[in-house]
């Protein structure tokens, strides 16, 4: 005796569902002989999995310590048929429809794996449509059919959409010069960027010190946070390839103004609404100074993705980061 099932989903052209959208379709199932069925259900499920293996980065070790954290993101079930005694189904084909709504505040589908650190990190967020048949009678069993659903990213707006100004000042000790400093001021036009767009930044460097600025380096970085539990969080930065730029030196007494645009690849996006992982972005401006001085650094946070709010107040600013602390600054993580 066997159960056969196939179902079709009304997918968008891009094959990816946006948070807040409907997932609907039809399912057809067939029994090759008369069957007693206790329950038929169709469900939409989302869950996350994080696994961290210590010592993997410098060669795999079978005895490496492995930690894991699981997250139940979303579950919705529709009961097609239920009977404690069981419902007899004759040989033949049957069909029905299903309809689910995705919440707006859910993380996107994700598959991340790295061995670049002294850790092996594997993290995934997946969504499935599952159809379950609980068959009764003499040989009671459960049969499950599933189809993976891809969910697009949306961001929890934590930054304003109005232009923001950031600044950093470094003061030097000099016996004969009272005002001996370098001042860096930067303005980002919009801190929430859609994938495929550009980050627009204008910045000014005022060198009132007795030293020469060797160069100004700018790059886009990814900021990751992985949470095994409330007290065990892994935080690190990853440079985004192809976003580096560099300017010439700035002599003592000079004031230079620059403008810059960084293309955001369509594949880049922030990850919000998850308890096990978050990913955000920042533009890092580094003023290179000669030895023995420490380089100046300015971090400009941005979010990449479409906001989950249909109408976003440009003054809105949410300091929440899913209940977790923010990652360390780029300078702290690289020292």
TrEMBL record:
What are its GO biological-process terms? protein transport
One Pfam family from the record: Arrestin_N
Domain of life per record: Eukaryota
An example Gene Ontology CC term for this record? cytoplasm
Xref: Gene3D superfamilies: 2.60.40.640
Q: Which UniProt keywords apply?
A: Sensory transduction
Q: Which residues cross the membrane?
A: none
Q: Which InterPro entries match?
A: Arrestin-like_C, Arrestin-like_N, Arrestin_C-like, Arrestin_domain-protein, Ig_E-set
Give all residue intervals belonging to the Arrestin C-terminal-like domain: 178-307
Family statement:
Belongs to the arrestin family.
What protein is this chain from?
A: Arrestin C-terminal-like domain-containing protein
